[in-house]
């Protein structure tokens, strides 16, 4: 096994984050995610979940402390290298962030086209994944014309199509029914078994009670670890 397989995929040491002159949103966070782990991230609205995720997908740097992603100190990494590292991360945004003028198919295909994959292989992968999330019937419909729940599934399919090393999902089951939610969690679980590190931010106690993944709790900007309650 390679040495990198034993290294944490994310390391946080005394990490803090604030916006301008406002009080710290995140404070003194010390944590690491080992490769191939899977976690829930929970906390009340305003606890800092979205801010923490934004640092993990390299949209912003910490105000204090040290954040390492894939072994790279984010504060000392240039923009070009950060852009390259982001390709190894899949993100499911709570507001979807789809390209509304593109079809579901083309939104999901976009990461593969950026990689330069052949169109025949892109078509095979995208069709298979859209079938899995039950969107075969709407795959060529513009994203602006599908429902919120369908947009959520397109966003998830786009995030996982590359089999990222790190997957960050912000309320990924918030706009779908329980049957689709179960199917999406199975998809995340299968990616995790293939080696993807998965972090799912959620408010849903029902979801966390159903799946035995460890929980990270954010409260007043501080991160703590707690095993699933019996």
Major sheet size, sense and barrel closure: 6 strands, mixed
Shape: globular
Q: How far apart, in Å, are the first and last alpha carbons? A: 35 Å
Continuous helix count: 7
Cα Rg:
18 Å
Produce a short descriptive summary.
The chain is an alpha/beta fold and 230 residues long. The protein has seven helices and ten strands.
How would you portray this structure in words?
- This protein is of the alpha/beta class and 230 residues long.
- The chain is 33% helix and 24% strand.
- The protein contains seven helices and ten strands.
- The chain has helices spanning 49-56, 79-86, 104-115, 119-132, 148-160, 178-193, 205-210, and strands spanning 8-17, 26-34, 38-42, 64-69, 72-73, 89-92, 166-170, 197-201, 215-219, 222-226.
- It has a six-stranded mixed β-sheet with strand order 6-7-8-3-9-10, sandwiched between helices. It has a four-stranded antiparallel β-sheet with strand order 2-1-4-5, with helices on one face.
- Helix 3 (104-115) packs across helix 4 (119-132) and helix 3 runs parallel beside helix 5 (148-160).
- The longest helix has 16 residues, at 178-193.
- The radius of gyration is 18 Å and the shape is globular.
- The protein starts with 7 loop residues before the first strand and ends with a strand.
Helices and strands in order, then pairings?
Blueprint: E1 8-17, E2 26-34, E3 38-42, H1 49-56, E4 64-69, E5 72-73, H2 79-86, E6 89-92, H3 104-115, H4 119-132, H5 148-160, E7 166-170, H6 178-193, E8 197-201, H7 205-210, E9 215-219, E10 222-226
Parallel strand pairs: 3-8, 3-9, 6-7, 7-8
Antiparallel strand pairs: 1-2, 1-4, 4-5, 9-10
């Amino acid at each position: 096994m390679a040495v990198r397989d034993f290294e944490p995929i994310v390391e946080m040491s005394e990490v803090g984050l604030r916006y301008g002159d406002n009080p710290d949103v995140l404070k003194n966070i010390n944590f690491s995610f080992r490769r191939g782990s899977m976690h829930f991230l929970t906390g009340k609205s305003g606890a800092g979940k979205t801010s923490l995720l934004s640092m993990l997908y390299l949209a912003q740097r910490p105000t204090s402390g040290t954040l390492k992603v894939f072994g790279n100190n984010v504060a000392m990494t240039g923009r070009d290298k950060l852009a390259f590292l982001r390709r190894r991360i899949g993100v499911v945004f709570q507001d979807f962030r789809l390209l509304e003028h593109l079809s579901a198919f083309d939104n999901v295909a976009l990461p593969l086209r950026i990689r330069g994959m052949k169109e025949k292989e892109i078509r095979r992968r995208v069709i298979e994944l859209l079938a899995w999330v039950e969107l075969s019937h709407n795959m060529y419909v513009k994203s602006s014309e599908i429902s919120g729940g369908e947009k959520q599934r397109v966003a998830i399919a786009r995030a996982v199509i590359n089999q990222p090393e790190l997957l960050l999902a912000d309320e990924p089951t918030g706009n779908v029914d329980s049957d689709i939610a179960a199917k999406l969690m199975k998809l995340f679980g299968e990616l995790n078994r293939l080696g993807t590190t998965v972090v799912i931010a959620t408010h849903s106690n029902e979801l966390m009670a159903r799946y035995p993944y460890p929980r990270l709790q954010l409260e007043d900007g501080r991160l703590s670890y707690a095993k699933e309650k019996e």
